[in-house]
Design goal:
three-stranded parallel sheet
Length: 332
């Protein structure tokens, strides 16, 4: 019998008979909280997930999407997930240091050659194995969602690592990102995503690192005079849920959700690849900031300056994982 149907057996006293009848089970509501706008790859992915669930599981499951930190920021949402106050979230992979040290792999500077290399790794056996690293903490990884390559910005040109010395850069709560900026003599400042625009506008911080879609959607380019095409890191998200909640879903519903998530995950990657060049061009056309493209020699200076960070964290993130990433780099 379908697990979404309950048998209810009332007792009809008047005639002394027991008569079974069928009622539909209550619709399952899944709250999805994230911090970006609906126009970013993650925002589009969340809305596509909602649409596909509406189409395939109509009346059984409903997803409510709360973008732009309407419910929680990336840090608070992890606690909310464990309390089952929300059931889906997609925080940056940089936000999980208290839950697993393995995902710090994704923060290593200049590790991934491009977004295609990242996608190659996350689809690999090693990448899928790494997705399970938070299971023992009561959370479950459902997929990796790509945003894109990160660029660096400030209020003067960042052409060599020396140009960043002494500047205050916003970072996510990641020890790797902290070490990355310290390696070039900068001052990393941990700060939530929702606070970045005002901090840039008021001079609380001097610069930031982010993808083209986030720089555009949050209007960081309006308060940063210069952006360097560094592509020094990747910004990816983990689509996660409460492990207990997920495991108690009816089997048929859970399997259908897994199929939908797999399809949406592939679409999110394509969203990210499609919008990167378009968003960069939109920012360039605005005339509000200068975009600097590094020569191979200039980029190599940044690589050399940040590369020591690898040695500091390679045992933590797994040398075997780094090897697989490098194999993906060679293919892409």
């Amino acid at each position: 019998m379908n697990k979404n149907i309950k048998l209810v057996t009332p007792i009809i006293i008047a005639i002394g008979l027991t008569v079974p009848f069928i009622t539909l089970a209550k619709e399952i509501v899944i709250k999805f909280s994230h911090v970006t706008t609906k126009t970013t790859p993650k925002g589009k992915g969340a809305m596509l997930l909602k649409k596909m669930v509406d189409e395939r599981l109509n009346g059984k499951v409903r997803i409510e999407v709360y973008p732009s930190s309407q419910l929680y920021g990336d840090k608070a949402v992890l606690k909310a997930l464990l309390l089952n106050d929300v059931q889906l979230a997609a925080p940056s992979l940089s936000k999980f240091s208290k839950y697993t040290k393995k995902w710090a792999l994704f923060d290593l500077p200049f590790l991934f050659k491009n977004a295609q290399a990242l996608n190659c790794f996350t689809d690999s056996e090693k990448g899928q194995e790494l997705l399970n690293a938070i299971d023992r903490k009561g959370l479950k990884g459902l997929g990796y969602w790509l945003n894109g390559m990160k660029q660096i910005s400030a209020n003067h040109p960042l052409i060599t690592p020396k140009d960043a010395q002494g500047l205050k850069f916003r970072i996510m709560s990641s020890d790797v990102l902290k070490a990355q900026f310290e390696a070039i003599g900068a001052n990393p400042q941990k700060m939530s995503f929702s606070e970045v625009y005002n901090a840039l506008a008021t001079g609380v911080i001097d610069g930031q690192e982010n993808t083209w879609s986030n720089i555009l959607s949050k209007k960081f380019f309006e308060v940063q005079k210069d952006i360097t095409v560094s592509s020094h890191g990747v910004l990816g998200y983990a689509l996660i849920t409460n492990k207990r909640f997920w495991n108690t879903l009816p089997d048929d519903i859970r399997l259908e959700l897994e199929k939908i998530i797999k399809e949406v995950t592939a679409k999110v990657t394509q969203f990210a690849l499609d919008v990167a060049i378009k968003d960069m061009q939109t920012i360039a056309d605005s005339g509000k900031t200068n975009i600097h493209i590094l020569s191979p020699e200039q980029k190599q200076q940044w690589v050399v300056a940040m590369k020591p960070v690898w040695a500091k964290f390679e045992n933590q993130v797994g040398k075997d994982n780094i090897v697989v990433v490098q194999q993906c780099n060679a293919k892409n």
